[in-house]
Amino acid sequence: MKLPEILAPAGDKNSFLAALAAGADAVYCGLKIFSARMEAENFSMEDLAGLAKLARKRKVKVYVAFNSLIKETELEKVLRILSKLVEYVDPDALIIQDLSMIPLARKAGFKKEFHLSTLGNLTFPAGLQTMPPLGFKRIVLPREFTIDEIKEMALNTPADIGLEIFIHGAL
Fold first, then answer.
1. Cα–Cα distance for residue pair 81/72, rounded to 1 Å
2. DSSP per-residue string spanning 12-57
3. Concatenated DSSP letters for 57-79?
4. Is residue 2 a part of any domain in this protein?
5. CATH number at residue 33
6. Half-sphere exposure of residue 52: CA atoms within 13 angstroms, side-chain side
7. Would 171 be classed as within a structural domain?
8. Residue 156 maps to a domain
9. Please, are residues 121 and 96 in contact by the beta-carbon 8 Å criterion?
10. Number of domains in the chain
């Protein structure tokens, strides 16, 4: 049996450090741009690079939410930011909702995992089968799912895909 990963949110430096101190297996956070949780303080590239380095020393993974929708007029900016993210932060995964992020991130040199954000709205078992060919390794299920809906998704999940659930709902 595979043990669950304890994944903690971090909207600022203090919450990131608290997640490390509490023994989280992984931390997810966003940059000050292209993150869906813009009400959070979020991180500059420089701050996140330093915190990611600290996390790696403690063998804690860092997942970066780059989960806003990308407009065509933003493509160059997104590529620049992704290139810097790969170079300075080297996240263990990108949490995305916009499928156009996959080729953009690969073009920027990102070689690790993609996780489909809850904003990606995958809500029925047949949809899970479409995820591996796209490059996803994890699906974040909607917070609104009941235990029975989570079980149904788990029973139909391809072997190479992980499921993530929020145990606290929306904060």
1. 15
2. SHHHHHHHHHHT-SEEEEEBSSS-S-TTS--B-HHHHHHHHHHHHH
3. HTT-EEEEE--SPPPGGGHHHHH
4. no
5. 3.20.20.60
6. 23
7. no
8. yes
9. no
10. 1
In a domain, 169, yes or no: no
Which structure tokens are listed for 64?
A: 């970066």
Encoding tokens for residue 76?
Answer: 């160059």
Where b means 16+ CB within 10 Å and e means fewer, 65-91 reads bbbbebeeeeeeebeebbeebbeebbb
- Given a cut of 80, is residue 14 above it in pLDDT? yes
* Angle made by CA atoms 16, 164, 32, in degrees to the nearest 5: 40
Give the Cα separation of 19 and 7 in Å (integer). 9
Question: Domain range spanning residue 78?
Answer: 7-164
pLDDT tens track for 98-144: 999 999 999 999 999 999 999 999 999 999 999 999 999 999 999 88
> At 31, phi and psi to the nearest 5?
-80, 175
Cα–Cα distance, 123 to 75 (Å, whole number): 28
* Nearest C-alpha neighbor of 31 from the set 15, 47, 42: 42
| Residue 1 pLDDT class (50, 70, 90 cuts) | low
Structure tokens at 58: 């403690």
How many Å apart are CA 21 and CA 17, to the nearest integer? Answer: 6
